[in-house]
Amino acid sequence: MAELYSLHWRRAYRAAYLVVHDAAAAEDVAQDAFLAAVDALDRFDRRRPFAPWLHRIVVNRALDWARRESLRRRVAREESVFEPLPPPEEVGGEMIAALKELPAEQRAVVVLRHLLEYTPGEIASMLDLPRGTVNSRLRRGLDRLRTAAEAEVAMEERR
Amino acid sequence: MRRDGLGEALRGAPIAIPDDAEERGLRVVEAAYAEREAPARSRLESRRPLPRLALALALATLLAALLLSPAGAAVRDWVDDAFTASTPKPEPTLAEIPGGGRLLVESAAGPWVVQPDGSRRLLGGYEEATWSPHGLFVAAADGRTLSAVEPDGTPRWSFTAPARVADPRWAPSPGERIAYRSGRALRVIAGDGTGERALAPQTAPIAPAWSPFGDPSLAYVSAAGALRIVDSESGERLAAAPGLPEIAEMEWGAGGTAILETSPRALRLRQVRAGKLSPGPALDAGRMLAVPPGADLVDAALAPRRQAVAAVLTHWRDAGTSSSVVVYGPAGGRQRLLTVPGSLGEVAWSPDGERLLVAWPYANQWLFLPVGKGQGRAVANVSNAFAPGGGVASFPRVEGWCCRP
Predict the structure, then answer these.
(1) B241 touching A, CB under 8 A?
(2) DSSP B86
(3) CB 3.0 to 4.6 Å from B263: which of A20, A106, B246, B287, for a disulfide?
(4) ipTM score for this prediction
């Protein structure tokens, strides 16, 4: 188990982080995914690769967290004047900042496609979505990332 | 944007990794793995001889055939009705609390303390409250303020938290700590109002639960939905497990031996044992308690001393909505105590675990139901009893039934 964990933890954490954009939550998600894997070891077909199974859990749990967080923020805005401001962004990197601006559903497919390198068909199976939905989320996400990157280049050129 | 360029950017971008996060996770995962392997071995070793299993299967098959046959429908109904008491005739007011103890009740006006003789006192304009272990105090929350209040309403201390206070929970005897949520964080404060500090930066909006042994172990649900037990003194993570999907409530009871997780459609009871890798607690994979198809779980409560779970279920049928009170026994059996038309509310165990208090807002009644033998009692006009000045009031919520002698 320790070997499996060492082999997969960093990638699982990075995938979770790129969906939730919160270090503590990403740690929770990665650990929770490994615990879920331990719980379900009896049902796991050991002839199949471990990574896609783990990544499916990681990205789905990260998506659940991101959706709950989005709801929580909406409720907090409506209900409480005491809610503290969110902590300052912990990471650098224009790409990550641009990724954060995407809806969580688009972030998840971009991370699965470009960080973890799954095909749209595999992503559709992992997220239990029609393949067309995966393709459209990917296209919209990449369009927005490209627009953000172009705007940044233009700003750099003006400086 | 080129695809390979994006992949490289995502793989190479600097991201924040909390100190020791990888090692911390590994310890928890290895502990969970070790706990999982040990019971799996013991299950195999303790298998019963085949003849006994075959006999049990044959009896189960015979019983199933009987209950599923047309003639068996009557038998099935009889089995259900045998455990379904009629509702007791309601008494007009609460003259005493059956079985004794005191109640903490939350109304629109604030929390009330109800004494054994039925007399009651409004503590003040607090939003929520919880008993201290012996009922000597109540921890009450209002906005960002957490207060300790005597049962007669006299405030003892107050603390202003960084964000809105929710779900205060006073640790069992000796009652040295109070855990509560403030904004997204889980925080803890000593019972005398000193030593306040953060314990976890992010949690789910679910009340934490203290170890019933009075030690500093505290269970909570993380923002990602994982069930965790931490040492509230050192902050060290003692155990973790995946939470029930859509978990809504969590309770640590049954004499400290079990944690109950509740979602709108599922119940899971996890055993809490001494850990094999550390002196702290360890969680098993748990067992699901069956919720009938088509039923919604309204509330559930774990008995104080044994592994029995009381649940209120609402059944949605074409003929009309009905609700039932079910007790899941330690051996896995179910006992249906009552079925009523309409909806029931929350359920609470008496401090001695001998009876249940079930809210019945539809009839404006509280039902006191014995779990074993004995007569149930009902009290009418509940909402009126918690209307200050005799005005109109909404039906109150029972927060706790205190305290075991």
Answers:
(1) yes
(2) P
(3) B246
(4) 0.81
